[in-house]
Write a structure and sequence with these properties.
globular, alpha/beta, 6 strands, binds ligand FNR, 6-stranded parallel β-sheet, 41% helix, 7 helices
């Protein structure tokens, strides 16, 4: 199984990127997790889109198409989803004819880390209508959110909080079982 992890933060020490790296180490050997960022993806501009989608957008689309499932690691900004990640998903959703092949029936898991105490719960809730309109199949059998992320990783980005590791492993095991049972429709 191939999972594409997308994190919605551009900064070098991103806790959401580190969360996906931690997830990679907790998955069984037969499950591959590729971690993708959104660097190089410009702000959505329909005029640019009309002239042809930028190469980083096309490259991310190819990664999505190769994936059996998506794992989104979302930061929380001002009690909602972050614009950087929404912008990336918006590019992927154009033209609308691409929505079924990129997102339709594709399984997705949602996790997130924040330095605040809300632990991305509001960001995760804000993604629900977006996933619904795109036709993604969200695994809802478990949740993973992390508060006070700055206290849970070491200086190298390794997840050192044992409770978080155990909760992430439990989340991943349920998500992988779901993705295996309900495989994304492959193009
Ligand atoms: C934040 N942060 C934040 N955290 C939170 O738990 N709830 C929130 O509403 C917000 N709001 C917010 C707004 C803006 C503009 C910024 C820049 C930050 C803090 C956020 O959790 C923290 O910056 C994380 O480190 C972001 O994730 P990455 O970049 O580490 O992946």
């Amino acid at each position: 199984m191939r999972i594409l992890g997308i994190h919605g933060s551009l900064r070098k020490g991103s806790y959401n990127q580190a969360l996906l790296e931690a997830a990679r180490g907790l998955l069984p050997d037969e499950v591959e997790l590729e971690v993708a960022g959104l660097h190089g993806i410009p702000l959505y501009d329909a005029d640019v889109d009309a002239q042809g989608q930028p190469e980083p957008v096309l490259a991310l689309k190819e990664k999505v198409l190769r994936a059996d499932a998506l794992l989104i690691a979302t930061p929380e900004y001002n009690a909602s989803l972050p614009g950087v990640l929404k912008n990336g998903i918006d590019w992927l959703s154009r033209p609308p004819a691409d929505i079924p092949r990129l997102f339709g029936d594709r399984t997705v898991g949602l996790i997130g880390a924040s330095t605040g105490l809300r632990a991305t719960q509001l960001a995760q809730a804000a993604w629900l209508p977006v996933f619904r309109v795109l036709g993604l199949v969200l695994w809802t059998g478990g949740q993973f959110n992390m508060a006070s992320a700055h206290q849970k990783f070491d200086a190298t980005g390794r997840l050192i909080d044992e409770d978080s590791r155990a909760r992430l492993q439990k989340f991943l095991s349920g998500f992988v079982a779901f993705a295996a049972r309900i495989p994304s429709r492959r193009t």
